[in-house]
């Protein structure tokens, strides 16, 4: 093939958000849009990460992925990349990409130094929906801010990109290596099985035999919903083929380019089918629900854990996994190095860390901040309130891992009750027991999606402004909810990375209440149009006689304070959130 230099001009708005660049497919299809971003990424990497390098390109299989893979491959060839690795059909979950970068070794001993991940995660897909792209580094984690800032800076000055236009399209549905010759020597495209490396890694972490026993027990019933995302191919391999679950326990496990037309977001609003099957929500199933249910998002890095008629908040989930990991999961037998959560995530994990005397870190939203801690050996388990949970086995959150972690805990707690007539220890039992020991963090998040960007900015600015007078803030609170305890502290979260000293500012507006309650407000960095305001509401209850309340009831007064304090309706015109989780 030959290398062509194409003239181009900067395109506005290519700033990577919380997790890469996410835009409508129609935006990505504009002339040079994808090309500019990809070339800007190559230009942001050091030479040896491009010339002669091995780079992974794959994603959640959403609409436009197949075209993007061919374009990126041709540009990689032209930029002197030695080899491109593609999961069969262009499919690799985000955690699997992280695993492939860290673990996979090519036939000639080659290792990947980075990856383009093609996903917009939990955002809908299809010709009129979202596409996304992000770059992950040699440690398997998302590019740190220093790199994404450089990429963005490059997009503003780009004037040409390199492409091998005459390189033929590679058939990514067939496993094998295609070899080509270019001006700088050989170039290979290797298509490989999307699940092998990931399954191998999971087997080194968990005791598959004990999970198999759990799944085989007539007392235990199981259900998994991939929401038509890429998780389906891993679910089939792991839950059915390896662990012996019945094929009928899988819902929506065939990846679709448009996720069947719905949001591939594993929460109580969007995972409708699973929620109903688990006996929750308005259209709850009449049939006896399974004991355990879980769902994933489009790229399979998120997870939702459900018990029979029971929802586990993601903030509780990471705390419960951390509290039980050493006993229940072989990978952690020698102890936890530390734990971490994102700032808006509830303090349930903090209490566990304190009790178990573990190192603890609070980082800004987004997985990239956990990577540094893990690389420095400071953190074993971490999580976010947004249905993200994971560990230092890779550098991304991991939806299937979280399910295997829960199944391991269930297998451990039930090791004596699977045979005979002892009662099964259920998901709900485990969570209630946890609350009895550590107290409960009532928690909810209100999302206002696609709000006018100006209005959202004004609302946030006002919330910062009123922080300068807490007595005025407390006056408002007294008026609307006299029983809510007063605010004792308020700030904007700023993070100093303990490993590299880098500082991230404006990471969310916080209000701390005297009784330990907390309100957090932040703007989403993953949307593709307008603004999304997220309100995080949390209240701690230590008294074991009061941990069994309905969460929305318990939080109602604090929610009211949040909405009045932020003047939500005044600024946005919205009388209700788009999604409550
Ligand atoms: C959201 C979540 C955040 C998560 C991010 C990426 O970001 O709040 O916790 O890390 O999505 O997840 P934001 O900026 O919209 O609040 V994923 O599954 O979209 O890669
Ligand atoms: Co995701």
UniProtKB/TrEMBL annotation:
Enzyme kind, highest EC tier? isomerase
Report the leader peptide range.
Answer: none
Residue span(s) of domain Alpha-D-phosphohexomutase alpha/beta/alpha: 14-158, 197-306, 315-416
The catalytic activity, as recorded, is: alpha-D-glucose 1,6-bisphosphate + L-seryl-[protein] = O-phospho-L-seryl-[protein] + alpha-D-glucose 6-phosphate; O-phospho-L-seryl-[protein] + alpha-D-glucose 1-phosphate = alpha-D-glucose 1,6-bisphosphate + L-seryl-[protein]; alpha-D-glucose 1-phosphate = alpha-D-glucose 6-phosphate
The UniProt entry, under InterPro entries, shows: A-D-PHexomutase_a/b/a-I, A-D-PHexomutase_a/b/a-I/II/III, A-D-PHexomutase_a/b/a-II, A-D-PHexomutase_a/b/a-III, A-D-PHexomutase_C_sf, A-D-PHexomutase_CS, Alpha-D-phosphohexomutase_SF, PGM
Keywords attached to this Swiss-Prot or TrEMBL record, sorted alphabetically, are: Carbohydrate metabolism, Glucose metabolism, Isomerase, Magnesium, Metal-binding, Phosphoprotein
Where does the source fall among the domains of life?
Eukaryota
**A GO CC annotation given for this chain:** cytosol
Q: What does this protein need as cofactor?
A: Mg(2+)
Q: Which GO terms describe its molecular function?
A: magnesium ion binding; phosphoglucomutase activity
Could you tell me the EC number(s) of this protein?
5.4.2.2
Record keywords: tRNA-binding included?
Answer: no
Output the GO biological process annotations, alphabetical, semicolon-separated. glucose metabolic process
Describe the subunit structure: Monomer.
Q: Which family does it belong to?
A: Belongs to the phosphohexose mutase family.
Q: What does this protein do?
A: Catalyzes the reversible isomerization of alpha-D-glucose 1-phosphate to alpha-D-glucose 6-phosphate. The mechanism proceeds via the intermediate compound alpha-D-glucose 1,6-bisphosphate. This enzyme participates in both the breakdown and synthesis of glucose.
What NCBIfam families does the record tag this protein with?
Answer: PRK07564.1-1
Note the PANTHER family from the entry: PHOSPHOGLUCOMUTASE (PTHR22573:SF2), PHOSPHOHEXOMUTASE FAMILY MEMBER (PTHR22573)
Q: What is this protein called?
A: phosphoglucomutase (alpha-D-glucose-1,6-bisphosphate-dependent)
Q: Which gene encodes it?
A: LOC109711459
């Amino acid at each position: 093939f030959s290398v062509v230099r194409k003239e181009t001009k900067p395109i506005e708005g290519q700033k990577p958000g919380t997790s890469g660049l996410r835009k409508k497919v129609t935006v990505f299809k504009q002339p040079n849009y994808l090309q500019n971003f990809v070339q800007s990424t190559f230009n942001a990497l050091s030479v040896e990460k491009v010339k002669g390098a091995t780079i992974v390109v794959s994603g959640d299989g959403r609409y436009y992925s197949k075209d993007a893979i061919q374009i990126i491959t041709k540009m990689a060839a032209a930029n002197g990349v030695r080899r491109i690795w593609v999961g069969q059909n262009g499919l690799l979950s985000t955690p699997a990409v992280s695993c492939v970068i860290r673990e996979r070794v090519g036939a000639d001993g080659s290792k990947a130094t980075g990856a383009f991940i093609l996903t917009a995660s939990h955002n809908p897909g299809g010709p009129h929906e979202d596409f996304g792209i992000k770059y992950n580094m040699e440690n398997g984690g998302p590019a740190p801010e220093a790199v994404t800032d450089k990429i963005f800076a490059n997009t503003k000055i780009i004037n040409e990109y390199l492409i091998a236009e005459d390189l033929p399209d590679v058939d990514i549905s067939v496993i094998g290596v295609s070899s080509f010759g270019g001006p700088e020597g050989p170039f290979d495209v290797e298509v490989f099985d999307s699940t092998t490396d990931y399954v191998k890694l999971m087997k080194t972490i968990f005791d598959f035999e004990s999970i198999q026993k759990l799944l085989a027990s007539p007392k235990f019933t199981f259900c998994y919903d991939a929401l038509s995302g890429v998780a389906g191919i891993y679910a089939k391999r792991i839950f059915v083929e390896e662990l012996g679950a019945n094929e009928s326990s899988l819902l929506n496990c065939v990846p679709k380019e448009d996720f069947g037309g719905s949001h591939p977001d594993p929460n109580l609003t969007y995972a409708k089918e699973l929620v109903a099957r688990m006996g929750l929500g308005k259209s709850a199933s009449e049939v006896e629900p399974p004991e355990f249910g879980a769902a994933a998002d489009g790229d399979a890095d998120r997870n939702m854990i459900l018990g029979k008629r029971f929802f586990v908040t993601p903030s509780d989930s990471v705390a419960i996994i951390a509290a039980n990991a050493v006993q229940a999961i072989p990978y952690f037998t020698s102890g936890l190095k530390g734990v971490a959560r994102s700032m808006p995530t509830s303090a349930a994990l903090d209490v566990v860390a304190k009790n178990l005397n573990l190192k603890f870190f609070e980082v800004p939203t987004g997985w990239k901040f956990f990577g540094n801690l893990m690389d420095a050996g400071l953190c074993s388990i971490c999580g976010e309130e947004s249905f993200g949970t994971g560990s230092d086995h890779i550098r991304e959150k991991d939806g299937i891992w979280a399910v295997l972690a829960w199944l391991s805990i269930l297998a451990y707690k039930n090791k004596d009750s699977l045979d005979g007539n002892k009662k099964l220890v259920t998901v709900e039992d485990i969570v209630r027991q946890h609350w009895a020991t550590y107290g409960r963090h009532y928690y909810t998040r209100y999302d206002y999606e696609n709000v006018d960007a100006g209005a959202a900015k004004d609302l946030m600015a006002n919330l910062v402004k009123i922080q300068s007078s807490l007595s005025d803030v407390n006056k408002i609170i007294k008026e609307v909810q006299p029983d809510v305890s007063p605010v004792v502290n308020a700030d904007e979260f700023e993070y100093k990375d303990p490993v590299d000293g880098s500082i991230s500012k404006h990471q969310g507006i916080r209000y701390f209440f005297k009784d330990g309650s907390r309100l957090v407000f932040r703007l989403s960095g993953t949307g593709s149009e307008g603004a999304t305001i997220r309100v995080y509401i949390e209240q701690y209850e230590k008294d074991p006689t009061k941990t069994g309340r309905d969460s929305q009831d318990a939080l109602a007064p604090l929610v009211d304070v949040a909405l009045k304090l932020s003047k939500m309706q005044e600024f946005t015109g919205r009388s209700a959130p788009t999604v409550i989780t």
